[in-house]
Amino acid sequence: MSIEDSHQTACGHQKKLTFCCSYQTRFICYTQKMAVAGPSATSSGLQDKLTKSFIPTIKRLHFKVVQYMMEACIKLQLDSTTSASACTIYHRFFSRCQAQDYDPYLIGATAIYLATKVEEQFCKLRDIINVCYRILHPNEKPLEIGKLYWDLRDSMVHCELFLIRTLGFNPRASDLPHKYLVHYLKSLQSWIDRDTWNTVPLCDLAWGFLRDSYHVDLCLRTKPQHLAIACIYFSMEVYCVQVPYNDVAKIPWWKVFCEDIKLVRIEAIISELIDMYDMETKFKPSIAASNSRTKGKLTSS
Amino acid sequence: MATYQREVIEFPYCEEVSKYEKIIKIGQGTFGEVFKARHQKTRKIVALKKVLMENEKEGFPITALREIKILQLLRHENVVTLLEICRTKASAYNRYKGSIYLVFEFCEHDLAGLLSNSNVQFSLGEIKEALKQLLNGLYYIHQNKVLHRDMKTANILLTKDGRLKLADFGLARAFSFPKPGQPNRYTNRVVTLWYRPPELLLGERNYTQAIDVWGAGCIMAEMWTRSPIMQGNTEQHQLTLITHLCGSITPEVWQDVDQLELYQSLELPKGQKRKVKDRLKSYVKDQYALDLIDKLLGLDPKTRTSTDEALNHDFFWEDPMPCSLTRMLSQHTQSMYEYLAPRRRIQQNHPPSHPAPPPPRQNAATSKLGLNTASFEKTY
């Protein structure tokens, strides 16, 4: 792949569209969230958070880096599972290491590279470097083969080894929630009446929630089964869809899928998701500013 | 993204390999070197396998990553146990690239080393026990959706207390059953040529666990012949040898074989009869054994017997029943490895995953063989 090619991949129109779509999902979620969390206690706590407390800088930083990672993954046409795996690696790393000691953008790019190996969706290191560089430096020329390119490549290779060691040579410690989500939805499909199922984009929304959940480190603190159930529950609330006879059932549907989940836990996960979407709207304008800041970082090295 | 100064990187998450002292090198291959080593304090004996990182253009080798991932997943008495992963310090000597070592439990022998030593004699019950453990190990890894992809006697280890273990997962990978209309596209450049099944030789990329079963069949026959039964020089030669043993490869005995990529371009001898039992009966006197070998070496991977079926075969359930290997192995205090056995050293040059170039016919080497290690091919 020549430089021109990869440049085109990085800003190809089609991919850009896909990228926008994923954010659209998020937008929908956000606008509907009040209807969901309206009267519950968590929501008033949330309002407090919005007005009074401020979101920790570190959390915001990771949110931003994950956003950049997701963009890179989409431009590299990686599967959702691969990008989820990359984000998990990223969050696991920073659960053990201090953010100020490392450049999170390098860790993020390397996490993507490692994830492509772990998930057997191999991607050339060079493509990852080109795409990541492009996202971080949208106004500059595409990266040429030269000292900077080789230095970046060298850094990635070293950083990869470092990541693997930090993660105890076990880059995929637990299952991803994706397969559970698909299985659960498949089972629910035969329960929910066909008309509703065909008209309401329940699956898309649940999938979108799951993908977006990686903007925070929920994946580290939540069992994959629980995360999958919470995403489905949330999307059913959004569209006011109910599993027939759930209210009279001895065992609620979520317990059928996973015995050890409680409704409180589902609500807690959903509340974290809502917090995450709020965080996004709160500092959307600052993303452009962050780009110019990292630019200084790269050229100086 | 930024570039880092090399010196700043310190690794607190991985212990140093210097806590083990190397005793002797016991293996060498495309994967790297294997050493016997002793823990400085506990005196525990282990095997150290160095991860080759020379070709670090694409970073940490994906094969090593797979091997680690698979070994961390698999825990079975017939699969070698990965104890931990160690490192060497990065210094000016290794261009600031520390190496990684996989630390394994130590096994005294490998099957290739044992079979090449004419002083080692297996009784029928002992052969049954070894094969039972081999198939048990294979059954377990296949249940866990892992393909070994490098079955050969050098990769079958035995401890002195008679436990057989599958080792070297350097070529192994996870697999999934192909979905309709979506065939898998795995590389077919796997398995040492002499143990490579016909479907791989014909270019199949959508292969299954059956590739390991073929290897098990080759190994089973080797328990009696004492040397690999089909020692081809090239893929073409290997296929010819397979045809001579298992009969001509035609769509009649192997449905859809003509769909395979190399079916047209390779020369497949016609009119050959299947004579697995005939040609092996001078070595293998047991009828059940012959029947099982015949089933393991089935041409069509779809109808080749599975590990489960093989374990239910009468061979394992008729007298003499499998019996412990401990007594026999206790007579041999010296470790036996293919790498340390002088006459088989040449085979080491044969790259496990690389189809070409083949090892030259070892006329000098074969002439040195003892009576019971005479080349199977030469007898015919």
From TrEMBL, chain A:
Entry-linked InterPro entries: Cyclin-like_dom, Cyclin-like_sf, Cyclin-Q_first_cyclin_box, Cyclin-Q_second_cyclin_box, Cyclin/Ssn8, Cyclin_N
BP GO annotations: regulation of transcription by RNA polymerase II
Keyword Nucleotidyltransferase: no
Pfam family, any one: Cyclin_N
Domain Cyclin-like per the UniProt entry, residue ranges: 67-165, 179-275
Keywords: Cyclin
GO molecular function, one term: cyclin-dependent protein serine/threonine kinase regulator activity
Organism domain of life: Eukaryota
Similarity annotation: Belongs to the cyclin family. Cyclin-like FAM58 subfamily.
PANTHER family: CYCLIN
Name used for this protein in its record: Cyclin-Q
From TrEMBL, chain B:
Region named Disordered: 347-380
SMART domains xref list: S_TKc
Sites where the protein binds ATP: K49
Subcellular location: Nucleus
Alphabetic keyword roster: ATP-binding, Kinase, Nucleotide-binding, Nucleus, Serine/threonine-protein kinase, Transcription, Transcription regulation, Transferase
Compositionally biased region (Polar residues): 363-380
Stretches with biased composition (Pro residues): 352-361
Any GO CC annotation of this UniProt entry: nucleus
Residue ranges the record marks as coiled coil: none
Cited CDD domains: STKc_CDK9 (cd07865)
Matching InterPro entries: CDK, Kinase-like_dom_sf, Prot_kinase_dom, Protein_kinase_ATP_BS, Ser/Thr_kinase_AS
Name used for this protein in its record: Putative cyclin-dependent kinase 9
Source species: Stichopus japonicus
